[in-house]
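Fig. S4 source data, part A: sequence.
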Amino acid sequence: MSIKAVISGGGTGGHIYPAIAIANAIKELDSKAEILFVGAEGKMEMEKVPEAGYKIIGLPVRGLQRKFSLSTIGTIFRLLRSIYKSRKIIKSFKPDIAIGVGGYASGPLCFVASRKGVPILLQEQNSYPGITNKLLASKASKICVAYDDMDRFFDKSKLVLTGNPVRQDIINVDSLKDQAYKFYGLDSSKKVIVIVGGSLGARTLNESVLNSLDEIKDNKDIQIIWQTGSYYAKEMEERIKGASIENLYKYTFLKRMDYIYAIADLIISRAGACTISELCLTAKPTILVPSPNVAEDHQTKNAMALSSKNAAVLVRDKDAVESLLPTALSLVNNSKELDLLSTNIEKMAFRDSARKIANLIKETVK
């Protein structure tokens, strides 16, 4: 009998890409498996999931605000509508298992599924769990995690240490170096720093670059790839107009992350869970600048899990504008320290996470 799985959650790439990786692993395990995604209307999963070849249904759910306001009433109404729609989805699709990956949509869907006797499997990407997974934990059969000591938050008997599923195209990228240098127009004899703040961008990382343009210009033997993000692209273009810095390569979005991982000597990034999982697998020396604008400050906790083991350098958001680029320009020339960071971060890598989760799903369904 083939598996029928509903996968719910999303809102950010950190939820969506692991969900798609899990779906692909289920398909590799069972080519006749039926998989349905449930996401939040208007969020990026409604675009990314169909691009990956899967059907998705949207719920009108939105995140609850921490302070009560008039919009809270609308949010509660949306939640009730989402629960009603989830009942129809479960009744129609009749899944063998419901998989929650975090994010707004996984709440009502997994809640309804559990009430209908459908086993629940949760996948928690962060070292500090999101509110949705914490609320659903009592209803879950298994909870797949990427960090040790998660029994602080969840029932230890339900925990399975799997790591976070990641994009498969970033594994074994060393053979791509020549193509990557050519693709990005870089000199293979010079060091490469990559600054990436997500598809929308990160204000602090962008301001850090702008504050250090002279230092970047003076370090001609270092090449910097700078992803501004779509939200800041026009503003950054205006603010560096006329700067003429030949070793600074500005992009709105980096299309070939496999190439980036192939040639980066040092990566500067926010501390999202899935980004960290990719950095561990590719063994890239990293400076993490956790975003302060996330629930429960979980990015700082993610970053500290690495920095405490000398597997990454932690720069606080409040310090980044002044210190980030000077730290990076100094570090990238310290081969001994880069090697140590690379060795330590690789020790924290989990391999075949998606396949492990798919096997666990199969066992749970049986």
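Fig. S4 source data, part B ends here. The domain at 169-346 is CATH 3.40.50.2000 (Rossmann fold).
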